[in-house]
Amino acid sequence: MVILATVTTAQQARAQSAPPATFADLVDQVGDSVVNITTSAIVAGRQGGPAPMVPEGSPLEDFFNEFLDRQNPERAPRRSQALGSGFVISEDGFIVTNNHVIEGADEIVIEFRAGFELEAEIIGTDPNTDIALLKVEADAPLPFVPFGDSEAMRVGDWVMAMGNPLGQGFSVSVGIVSASGRALSGTYDDYIQTDAAINRGNSGGPLFNLDGEVIGVNTAILSPTGGSIGIGFAMSSAVVTNVVDQLREFGETRRGWLGVRIQDVSADIAEGLGLAEARGALVTDVPDGPAAEGGVEVGDVILSLDGEDIADTRELVRVVGDSAEGQTVRLLVFRDGDTRTLRVTLGRRETAEGIGATTPDGAPVAPVSSEVLGMELVPLTDELRDSLGAQGIAGGLVIEAVDPASDAAAKGLQPGDVITEVAQQAVDSVGDFRERVETATENGQKSILLLIRRGGNPRFVALALGD
C-alpha cells in the first residue's frame, strides 16, 4: 500500500505539471483583461529632409531616428507615439503597466481586445519598481484579472505572456519559469525570469500562471540584438501588489525607512565579528532617524526583522520597503558576541532620501605617521579633514600609503581612506590601532575588523592578521 500510494502521488504530480493540450481556454479566460497602450507626447522634432518610411513600433524606427538626429541636430517640436501593454485589475477600470511605458506622456489611450478605446489618467507611478497605475472610466464593468502568488511559482512551471509586441496587437507566448528572485539594477528588484517570448511592446503586460492569475509584470529582456532570445524578466506579483495597493490608496508609494547604512557580511567579516555564519546585514552607519532612536549601533548585524530571516542587505532593503511607515518592527541583532532584540518604529523612505549622518568635529591631534598591517597611517587633522571632505568625522586615522603586497591592498583600501573604528571601537591614534591588533592576535583571531569611510560612505573591511 505504501508503494502504491507513493506511485499514485508521483503520477498525480506529473499530471499536474504536464502542459495543457491547448492554452486556448486560458487565453479566452483572461484575454479581454489585457490591453494595448498607446502614449503620445510632444518631443523635439527633426528638420532637413524627408524621413524614411518605417512601420511605427518597428525595431528599425529607433535606428533611423538616431541616424537623423546625427544628420540634423536642429530640432523642432513634433508628436511622438510609443506602444506598450497593460492589464485591468478591477471592474471599475484600474490598469497596471510599466512606468517607462507612460513616462512623459501627455495622452494615454487604452485599446481593449473587444475593439473599443478609452483615454486613461495616471493615478500614480513608482520608478523604483517601474510600475504605474492608470484609471479609465467605462460605461460598463470591465473584465479584470487577479494577482497570484509569485512566491509559489517553481522553476519549470508553465507561464503565459500576453501583450502588444512590436505593435502587432494582442499576442500570446508561452514558456516556463527559468529562474526566480533575479535582481537587475533596482533596489527592490525581484524578477521572475522566463523564456516566454517578450519583445518591445510587451512591457507592462501580464505574465500568467495556468490558473489565469498574474504572477508578474513583463518589464525587461536581456538581448544583444534588441529582440527576444528567451531571457525575459517580469517583476514579481509579490512586489507589484504592494506597490499597486499604495498607489491606489495614496497616489504614491510610502515605504518603510529604517535609517541605517549597511553592507553584506563576508566570511572574513563574520570571523572578525565572531559570527557563526556569514549572513545578515552589517550596520556601517546610523544617522539620526528611526534606527538611532531604537538603539541600533554601528557594528550590529541585523539577523531578522519581525521574525523574517535576513540573508543579506538586499533582503533587508526589500523587507523594510514592504513594511509600512509608522510600523514598529522587532530587529534581532548580533552585538558583542550575543543577540538582542530591538524595537524600531519605521519612518518613510521617500521623505528621508538624502539624509546623512553628522557628528561634531574632534579635537586636533598631532600627525604621527606609522605603519600597521601594510598601511602608512596618520591621525585625521583639521587640514586633512578639509582636504578629504571628512568634516563629519571625529577622530580616525588617514591611510597615506598602502603596501601593494598587503591584505589591505587586496581588500581595496586606498590612500585617503579614513579608518574610524578598529575591532568595533573608535580609534584616534596609531597606538590604539596597534594595541587592538596585538589583543586580537593574542586571542587567536585570524582577522580584525575596520570601519573605513571613503567619500563619506562607510563600510567594514576585515584584514588578515599575521603572515
User: Largest sheet, described in full?
Assistant: 7 strands, antiparallel
Low-confidence stretches: 1-16, 46-58, 354-368
Q: What integer value in Å does the Rg equal?
A: 28 Å
Helix content: 10-25%
Number of strands: 27
Strand content: 25-35%
| Span between termini | 64 Å
Shape: elongated
How many individual helices? 12
User: What is the arithmetic mean of pLDDT?
Assistant: 82
| Secondary-structure class | alpha+beta
Can you walk me through this structure?
There is one protein chain. The protein is 22% helix and 34% strand. It has 467 residues and is an alpha+beta fold. Strand 26 and strand 27 form a beta hairpin. The relative contact order is 0.08. Mean pLDDT is 82; it is low at 1-16, 46-58 and 354-368.
Can you tag this structure with a few keywords?
six-stranded antiparallel β-barrel; 467 residues; 12 helices; 34% strand; alpha+beta
Produce a short descriptive summary.
This protein has 467 residues and is α+β, with helices and mostly antiparallel strands.
List the helices and strands and how they pair.
Layout: H1 2-17, H2 24-30, E1 34-44, H3 59-71, E2 77-88, E3 94-98, H4 99-102, E4 107-112, E5 117-126, E6 131-136, E7 158-163, E8 171-182, E9 191-194, E10 206-208, E11 214-221, E12 232-236, H5 237-250, E13 256-257, E14 261-264, H6 267-273, E15 281-285, H7 290-293, E16 301-305, E17 308-309, H8 313-322, E18 328-335, E19 338-345, E20 347-348, H9 349-352, E21 370-372, E22 375-379, H10 382-388, E23 397-402, H11 407-410, E24 418-422, E25 425-426, H12 430-442, E26 447-454, E27 457-464
Antiparallel strand pairs: 1-2, 1-4, 2-3, 3-6, 4-5, 5-6, 7-8, 7-10, 8-9, 9-12, 10-11, 11-12, 13-20, 14-15, 15-16, 16-17, 16-18, 18-19, 21-22, 22-23, 23-24, 24-25, 24-26, 26-27
